[in-house]
Amino acid sequence: MRYTLLGNSGLRVSARGLGLGVLAWGPLGAGILSGKYARPAALSGQRRLADVDPGRLAIAQAVADVADSLGLTSSLVALAWLRSRDGVIPILGARTAQQLADNLACLDVTLPAEALARLDQASHVARGFPHDFLATADYTLGGMSARLDMPPGRARYG
Asked: Which residues contact 59 (CB under 8 A, 6 or more apart)?
């Protein structure tokens, strides 16, 4: 399935719940997470895509910032983030032998917890309806949540 910092199909949670692994294709998001798009002035001749969504560019910039702070490439950070997810194996799609060698170096990278948190925050996508509705409304409890003793660990809504 497609699974990157830029977004995913949402099936990883289901796969994990069923004890299945995930082969993630397009882990660098068509090159957006490779670093080329975070620094467009320096590498504009190497870019394949013309009009990239600003939200995706913001995520690419966050990846580049984390990479700079750790002394790594953006590609390594994006791939290491993927590998930090339980049961996810990225499928590398390199054009050259050098790209493949560079990307395989992600096997030696473990991102610190604060870097993972920064990337998770930058790439967070709101789940939308009906999740936001169910999480904020007393819909599921028929308007009675204030009168109910909720079991420990159970959220009042949802």
From this structure: 5, 6, 32, 33, 122, 123
